[in-house]
Design brief:
The chain is about 45% helix and about 15% strand. The chain is an alpha/beta fold. The protein folds into three domains: about 140 residues, no CATH class; about 120 residues, Rossmann fold, CATH 3.40.50.720; about 260 residues, NAD(P)-binding Rossmann-like Domain (Rossmann fold). The strands form six sheets. Strands 10-9-8-11-12-15-20-25-24 form a nine-stranded mixed sheet, sandwiched between helices. Helix 12 crosses helix 19. It starts with a helix and ends with a helix.
């Protein structure tokens, strides 16, 4: 097919084709201008009359190229391309007419200099319109078989109008109108598209069979956005969104920018704002090291650390692919940072296992970090429950080897990323994270530490821990799982109808970790005031409704998506807590609290860690469980051993 063959050509070939086509139209416009002026079909009868035929393409080509007529994608061109064409032809008209006046060729009417550009503009404009329709069009059969979503756009501002223009060439959506809060816009039309009031939404959904509603509100406040989303939940529409203004490239909006609702919208509360002065004080111009750098929290830590302009960012990661992917992303961020502010940050990607003390010490001695953010951990509750020795080795002994390296090389700040599952845990993962916290608490209380028999090492490192709830959108989070289940038609699976969790976003979690490092004095456990915990079943229902579906239950047996309860998994709790003790103390940040919780002194705790290391080496799950029961307050594990290897060999 000619269209497919043309679209498959390299961009340079398509530009040459367009330029040659415009040149032919330029010659045709000269002929038409002569014919109109002389009132007869023209054929040059003197040498001088040939000059305008040659002059037209020679003048037009550089002017049109310089004004970007060949840089636009024809099948997506719109009013902006037409404006560029008008500017280019106007400039061409001035030069073309000027040359005819100066040359004063005999037998060449001067009016040709005005008629030809006007005809040329009509020809090129028509050709662009035809090309746009032809290249972006579908056959009648294709159009008939393609499902079309009936759409309303909430927001008639710049972003809404731009996405409406993009939708005009799309066969995925049929736009029925804008919805806007502004009374001055309601009742008007924008590009022949009506603007309605929010109160008219239920009637519009029923009248036009609206299936999708797009939030084009990139600059609206989070609280107002949440009000709008809550008001949309009763409507049977799929709510989509455009990203914030800072995420929209060059301020232009395209169909590719349409996304499902952000996890922040599902959270239903305002995000915790960062204290930029606190962050800059501990990160700007410093050497910063992040373990578990390619993980959900670790990678976001790296992104936010770069914004504070460190001198060097050391990335520690066990996954080669994860490290490679993160390095590619951060290199682009570094380039943008250098272009914008002239700041150059050195990235150091290092493959390492935090359990390997020799490797970690080598890295710490080579790069001498000022601040360390320890995010490397196994965090999936069922997996760690079935692989307890590996979970404890990574989460406890990995923390110990990293902290030891920090002490022995004089690191100033060390922040551990912890979890609310460390509070009165019912699973190995939570207990291992609480034990990791206790390692740092014990080290923090020691001005000098003897890791092995011999001379103690001086301890100048300020240790702190950051404990937060479930992170929306991270690997293993329920949000991507629920989205996949909704897309496949359900059911959504829950372990218990009464399960509640504290939730926060990935950026919030990273900000808390960074700010804790700046506020720490030594030994604190920082927690975020996250408001009330959220019932997982309520989150699931919210996601179903905002996807344009209904929940299938006893009250609505004909609903779209069912929610099934599968039973609690090994080690899973109905609810989580953030504090072991009571009366947390406030900090300089209004949403961050701190607590000094009980721990064992290092001299006493060290023997348990040595015993733990021996038990891990031989996968002695009974000994591991005994140590966790001895040291972790409130640990209530399942009575049955869940280690898969032990069960297979039994």
């Amino acid at each position: 097919m000619i269209k497919n063959k043309l679209l498959s050509q390299p961009r340079a070939v398509k530009q040459v084709v367009a330029l040659l086509a415009d040149a032919v139209m330029g010659v045709a416009a000269v002929w038409a201008a002569y014919s109109l002026r002389l009132d007869t079909l023209h054929w040059p009868y003197s040498l001088h009359q040939w000059w305008p035929y040659l002059l037209a393409p020679v003048l037009a080509a550089p002017i049109f190229w310089r004004n970007g007529l060949y840089h636009a994608v024809f099948r997506h061109s719109g009013m902006a391309a037409m404006r560029a064409l008008a500017v280019a032809v106007s400039l061409y008209c001035v030069l073309f007419f000027g040359v005819l006046m100066l040359a004063a060729w005999p037998d060449v009417p001067r009016s040709i200099g005005l008629l030809q550009p006007l005809i040329l503009m009509l020809l090129i404009g028509a050709s662009r319109a035809v090309a746009r329709q032809w290249l972006s069009g579908l056959s009648a059969v294709q159009r008939h078989s393609l499902p079309v979503s009936h759409l309303l756009i909430y927001g008639a501002g710049s972003a809404g109008v731009q996405i409406a223009n993009a939708i005009a060439t799309s066969h995925e959506f049929k736009l029925f109108g804008f919805v806007d809060d502004s009374p001055t816009l309601q009742g008007l039309t924008i590009n022949r598209v009506p603007v309605y009031a929010p109160a008219e939404l239920p009637a519009l959904v029923g009248k036009y069979g609206i299936t999708d509603l797009l939030l084009a509100l990139p600059s609206v406040s989070r609280s107002r956005r949440n009000e709008i989303i809550n008001g949309l939940q009763p409507l049977p529409v799929h709510v989509r969104s455009l990203p914030g203004l800072t995420d929209l490239a060059h301020g232009r909006v395209a169909l590719a920018d349409i996304k499902d609702l952000e996890v922040e919208d599902l959270l239903g509360r305002d995000a915790v704002p960062p204290d930029r002065a606190l962050l800059a004080r501990s990160l700007s111009g410093k050497v910063v090291l992040v373990t578990g750098a390619a993980g959900s929290i670790g990678s976001e830590l790296c992104r936010q650390i770069l914004q504070e302009h460190p001198a060097r960012l050391v990335l520690i990661e066990h996954s080669e692919f994860g490290l490679y992917t993160l390095q590619q992303e951060l290199q682009q961020q570094c380039l943008r940072l250098a272009e914008r502010s002239g700041v150059h940050v050195e990235l150091v990607p290092l493959l390492a296992n935090v359990r390997d003390y020799t490797r970690m010490l080598e890295i710490f001695r080579a790069y001498r970090p000022h601040s360390v953010f320890h995010a490397a951990a196994y965090k999936h509750v069922p997996l760690v429950e079935h692989n307890p020795a590996e979970g404890i080795a990574n989460n406890v002994l990995g923390t110990l080897s990293t902290a030891r390296s920090a002490v022995e090389t004089g690191v100033s700040q060390f922040v551990l990323v912890s979890t609310d599952k460390a509070v009165r845990p019912t699973n190995v993962m939570g207990a291992s994270k609480r034990l990791a916290e206790m390692v740092l608490q014990a080290l923090s209380a020691m001005p000098a530490v003897a890791f092995e028999e011999g001379r103690p090492a001086g301890n100048r490192t300020c240790f702190s821990m950051v404990r937060f709830g479930n992170v929306l959108g991270s690997s293993g989070s329920v949000v991507p799982l629920f989205r996949r289940q909704i897309e496949s038609g359900g059911p959504i699976t829950l372990t218990h109808a009464d399960v509640t969790r504290y939730f926060m976003t990935i950026p919030e979690a990273a900000q808390l970790v960074l700010q804790a490092g700046a506020m720490a004095e030594g030994g604190e456990v920082f927690v975020l005031d996250m408001g009330e915990p959220i019932k997982i079943i309520d989150l699931a229902r919210r996601m179903v409704k905002l996807s344009g579906f209904t929940v299938r239950d006893d009250s609505r047996p004909d609903g779209d998506i069912a929610i099934e309860v599968t039973g609690l998994r090994p080690g899973e709790k109905l609810y989580e807590e953030l504090l072991i003790g009571d009366n947390p103390a406030p900090t300089v940040h209004p949403r961050i609290l701190k607590a000094h919780e009980d721990f064992a002194p290092w001299a006493e705790f060290r023997a348990d860690l040595e015993q733990l290391e021996r038990a891990v080496a031989v996968n002695d799950t009974a000994a591991l469980r005994a140590i966790l029961l001895k040291r972790v307050s409130g640990f209530t594990p399942d009575e049955q051993d869940s280690d898969l290897v032990s069960l297979a060999g039994a």
